[in-house]
Amino acid sequence: MIGISLLATYRGQGVGTQAQRALADLFFRQTTVNRVEAHTDIENVAEQRALEKAGFTREGLIRGAHWRDGRHRDGPLYSILRAEWEEWI
């Protein structure tokens, strides 16, 4: 699993969207995978927007997926398929 983390000064500038697109691009160009998945915390609305802007589709919610702040938290599941990625390259 890989992820991104942005310093506060870079948030809200499209950097997260660019990073998600770059990661998907890397996986699809360098491997034969058909699908790239992304997970985030339910309260990380900015990351959810970035994933959607990067072409990912929200598929559902993974209950109790993350341990944070002393408790299990739900996490939205996103994905992008190779055919979808090929439409925006």
TrEMBL record:
Gene3D superfamilies recorded: 3.40.630.30
UniProt keyword annotation of Membrane present: no
Transferase is among the record's keywords: yes
A cellular-component GO term for this protein: cytoplasm
Annotated SUPFAM superfamilies: Acyl-CoA N-acyltransferases (Nat) (SSF55729)
InterPro entries linked to this entry: Acyl_CoA_acyltransferase (IPR016181), GNAT_dom (IPR000182), Ribosomal_N-acetyltransferase (IPR051908)
Keyword terms of this UniProt record: Transferase
Listed GO MF terms: protein N-terminal-serine acetyltransferase activity; protein-N-terminal-alanine acetyltransferase activity
Domain N-acetyltransferase: 1-84
Name by which UniProt lists this protein: N-acetyltransferase
